[in-house]
Specification:
The structure holds 3 protein chains of 3 kinds.
Chain A lengths: L21 H17 L3 H18 L3 H10 L1 H14 L8 E5 L2 E4 H27 L2 H12 L9 H31 L9 H32 L18 H24 L4 H8 L1
Antiparallel strand pairs in A: 1-2
Helix pairs in contact in A: 1-5, 1-6, 1-9, 2-5, 2-9, 3-5, 4-5, 6-7, 7-8
Chain B lengths: L2 E10 L7 E11 L4 E5 L6 H8 L7 E6 L2 E2 L7 H7 E4 L12 H12 L5 H14 L4 H4 L9 H13 L5 E5 L7 H14 L6 E5 L3 H7 L2 E6 L2 E6 L1 H6 L1 H6 L6 H11 L10 H16 L1
Chain C lengths: L1 E10 L10 E9 L3 E5 L6 H8 L7 E6 L2 E2 L6 H7 E4 L12 H11 L4 H14 L15 H13 L5 E5 L7 H18 L2 E5 L3 H4 L4 E6 L2 E6 L1 H6 L1 H6 L6 H11 L10 H14 L1
Parallel strand pairs in C: 3-8, 3-9, 6-7, 7-8
Antiparallel strand pairs in C: 1-2, 1-4, 4-5, 9-10
The chains are: A mainly alpha, B alpha/beta, C alpha/beta.
Chain lengths: 283, 287, 278
């Protein structure tokens, strides 16, 4: 019941960001990611960070809640950071701090590590703001609408969107069903907790087969129910929900444009990420 | 084995904004040999309660003893407990998975009695399949998915009783069946009761079913047991049951109206008894 | 006006079965009628239902809905607009994750303009008493509520016939009551033609007419009370009497002057009357 996919990790409050059109948010998200990868120096990253803080404040989602999503991939961040710290090398000469066999720690690798960790951090924070403020249903609608131009090249946009929305709709049902089957097989002595890999893989069969059988039965039922409700593909179909683009979205897009331009300028005039080292070591 | 629950509590998703109290201090005793009914609305906590009985839900508050098994004890052997407390879920036919009926019914045996010989298992499976009134030779090599709905349900029940559990718990065993199918399943449970499985616990929405079949019953409401008595005792308190939003069997409904009109019928609310008592009253008045 | 007309309809799922699931049914249902279809599992009642809205097409014979032949592919869309269907499993009929989006699905399919869809959703959700759940997720509703949403999804297409294929079978008593109340209201107030397939005998009592199916054939057809009065015949088709009817029959056999009663209230009435006569 708790892991209701309909709401994903949606955080239900009303805010400027929540009320934005999902399409604007997706475009915005893409621009934000581009900005992160465009950023070449710390000033640009700082600008992106400031921007992120502003968005989180506007979204009224507590910072702690957004941070929690980072926790899940913390290992990945630490792992790549350490790898970069020890094994960074570039064509240029390095300012070495410590060296042992094939491991080298230099000022460059320290900076590179911080830079990389910040990028990953900003990336995850940003995407989780999107999922915290947008329901999966709205996201699906947004994606469908953004993909609409692809209809010209006969890409089945409507079918794809319908598949996504039906999948979303059935995930909670199938999760409940899985729990029920697991409990029923446990009652018959099945053991899912102990044993080697092969034993555990085998233990899954009594759950997987009934689940598949049930999924097919449900698909058949749903097919009948859709036929009975006059479904016949995208042709001649109207749409009840129209996404509306408002001043909020316009404002958001202006912001995004400003962010990208700003970052390009910061990159142009304030040098690369190692510029800071030149400052220290030339003095 | 006797079941004794004291102050049983359970909360879904504790410490989260979605926390919901499923059990709020359940006290109930089910004696060995009973045909015990569990009544209540969807969400009254009855399903959560029965899943405690074979440790499918781990005890988090209160105490629960099933025979000599103390479910609060961390060293309690849950696998052994589950072989003695069988559980048939709602629509059990949806848990069938093996290629043949025989293999499916054997699943529980293989899990619980790892050192049992193949021939012994086959013999036990045969006995269980015949117990649920299916023709062993006819169905044993069939795929369970080829069978009719009613047959599938019987196979699923055979898959649970094959280990000869002392206590058999069934959640809405007759759900979705037609009237005759319902009757057949209830008759089957009576045939199993006593010899094959000492105690039977049935969760049911159908008050007529409870009145006809149970020795005693408990009424669940908002995570508590609000009544525990014989069906006759429970249905005599019709007003309270209606206040819990529950229904009455036809016999009890009728007796209630008769009482308002000044006709007292002393009955246990089974159909046969009700008919006898009404006819007796009629005879008495005729003199 | 005649809503449904079946003329010697036969249907076989697969030729190798060699058995007709529906075996020569001739039937006529008028607009505004409330018909209950009874019969054991496998007696052909669900097949009969699917033949009405062209989910299945007769192998032999002819099925017509408002004069349109279901075998003609050109008519299928029009027939389904007029004959909506609610199924058994409350979890397998919704396509969307939000109630109002699901109700909108039917009207969207038949190309209703957007503003009109909003009105239809309002009407349909009001009719089933689910307006308060408009923005809820179907997966969080009770079984009875899910089925009411499914009914709303059909109502939004504005059909004249509503077929319920064992739609109460998987519900608890409260859910069943909710659904039956909605169906009765639609029949009485909106004049909806209702085909209710069920194996709950007491539900059949709420209909104007009951049909009993056995091995693909219609073997009994009449007013529910009249059908339940023919108890021996009913038993021969493996159906049981509603409990109150059974009790009144047994009392009569025991020498009490009671007439057939079909509910607890009627039964009490009959018992009181005969006790007073003494």
């Amino acid at each position: 019941m708790l892991n209701d996919v309909t709401f994903g990790q949606y955080y239900p409050v009303r805010s400027f960001v929540h009320n934005m059109d999902p399409r604007a948010k997706i475009v915005f998200m893409i621009a934000y990611i581009v900005a992160i990868f465009l950023a070449k120096n710390f000033f640009a990253l700082a600008a992106v960070t400031a921007f992120l803080i502003l968005i989180v404040l506007l979204s009224r989602v507590p910072f702690g809640r957004v941070l929690r999503s980072v926790k899940m991939i913390l290992f990945l961040i630490v792992f790549t950071a350490v790898l970069n710290l020890f094994f960074y090398s570039s064509g240029a000469e390095l300012h070495i701090i410590w060296h042992w066999k094939f491991i080298t720690v230099s000022w460059e690798s320290v900076i590179n590590m911080i830079f990389l960790a910040m990028r990953l951090f900003l990336l995850v924070m940003g995407t989780s703001v999107l999922t915290l403020t947008t329901t999966p249903v709205a996201l699906t609608d947004g994606i469908e609408s953004l993909l609409t131009p692809l209809k010209w090249i006969r890409f089945p946009v409507h079918e794809l969107a319908l598949i996504m929305s039906i999948a979303l709709r059935f995930i909670p049902t199938l999760m409940d069903e899985t729990n029920r089957i697991v409990a029923a097989q446990k009652a018959r002595g099945a053991n899912f907790e102990t044993g080697g890999l092969i034993k555990r893989a085998k233990a899954v069969i009594p759950v997987l087969i009934p689940l598949l059988v049930s999924a097919f039965r449900r698909a058949e039922d749903l097919g009948d129910a859709m036929d009975a409700r006059c479904y016949s593909g995208a042709k001649g179909r109207t749409k009840y929900k129209k996404l509306v683009f408002t001043w909020r979205d316009a404002l958001g897009l202006i912001f995004t444009a400003a962010l990208i331009t700003g970052i390009v300028f910061l990159n142009l005039y304030l040098g690369g990420k190692f510029a800071i080292l030149d400052y220290f070591f030339t003095k | 084995m006797r079941i004794v629950a004291e102050g049983l509590t359970y909360t879904y998703n504790p410490k989260s904004p979605f926390a919901s109290h499923a059990l709020n201090g359940v006290n109930v005793t089910i004696e060995e040999g009973e045909f015990f009914g569990i009544i209540g609305h969807t969400g009254s906590g009855k399903s959560t309660f029965v899943q405690h009985l074979n440790a499918l839900i781990k005890l988090t508050g209160g105490s629960l003893k099933v025979g000599d098994y103390d479910l609060a004890d961390k060293k309690c052997d849950f696998l052994e407990l589950r072989s003695k407390v069988g559980m048939v879920f709602q629509y059990p036919e949806y848990q069938l998975f093996a290629e043949t009926v025989e293999k499916d019914v054997m699943f529980g045996l293989k899990n619980f009695h790892k050192d049992m010989k193949e021939e012994e298992m086959r013999a036990a499976v045969k006995e269980a399949i015949e117990r649920v009134d299916l023709d062993y030779e006819e169905v044993k090599d069939k795929s369970p998915f080829e069978l009719s709905g009613g047959q599938k349900r019987r196979v699923a029940i055979a898959g649970v009783i094959v280990t000869k559990p002392e206590i058999l718990i069934l959640d809405e065993p007759a759900a979705g069946l037609d009237p005759l199918g319902k009757k057949e399943i209830m008759d089957l449970l009576h045939a199993i009761h006593g010899g094959w499985c000492k105690t039977i616990v049935v969760v049911s929405h159908d008050m007529d079913e409870i009145a006809e079949n149970c020795t005693r019953a408990a009424v669940f409401s908002e995570g508590k047991v609000v009544m525990e008595d014989t069906p006759a005792g429970i249905f005599r308190r019709g007003d309270e049951l209606l206040a819990f939003g529950l229904d009455l069997p036809v016999t009890a409904k009728c007796a209630r109206i008769l009482k308002e009109r000044g006709v007292e019928i002393e009955t246990d609310f089974t159909v046969e008894d009700f008919i006898t008592k009404v006819l007796a009253e009629y005879g008495r008045r005729q003199g | 006006m005649e809503a449904i007309r079946f003329d010697k309809v036969k249907f076989m799922y697969r030729e190798e079965d060699g058995v007709y699931a529906v075996n020569g049914v001739t039937l006529s249902v008028n607009e505004g009628e409330f018909v209950a279809v009874l019969g054991r599992n496998g007696s052909g009642k669900s097949t009969l239902a699917k033949l009405v809205n062209a989910l299945l097409v007769p192998t032999e014979g002819k099925a017509e809905v408002f004069g349109l032949d279901t075998a003609d592919a050109k008519n299928v869309f029009e027939i389904r607009k007029n004959a909506g269907m609610v199924f058994q499993n409350p979890d397998n009929q919704t396509v969307a994750s939000i109630v109002e989006d699901d109700v909108a699905f039917g009207p969207e399919n038949i190309g209703v303009p957007r503003e009109e869809i909003a009105k239809r959703i309002d009407f349909a959700l009001d009719a089933v008493g689910m307006q308060a759940f408009r923005h809820a997720a179907p997966s969080r509703l009770s079984g009875g509520q899910k089925q009411r949403v499914a009914i709303a999804g059909v109502l939004a297409i504005r059909p004249k016939i509503m077929i319920l294929d064992e739609s109460t079978a998987m519900l608890d008593p409260r859910g069943r009551r909710e659904v039956m109340d909605v169906v009765k209201k639609l029949n009485k107030e909106e004049g909806m033609t209702v085909i209710l397939i069920t194996h709950f005998m007491d539900e059949a009592l709420e209909a104007d007419r009951a049909i009993v199916m056995h091995r693909g054939e219609v073997v009994m057809d009449g007013v529910p009370e009249e059908i339940f009065a023919r108890s021996e015949e009913l038993e021969s088709y493996n159906l049981t009497l509603p409990r109150a009817a059974y009790i009144s029959k047994k009392l009569a056999e025991g020498g009490m002057p009671v007439k057939g009663a079909f509910s607890a209230e009627e039964l009490a009435e009959e018992i009181c009357a005969s006790l007073r006569k003494v």
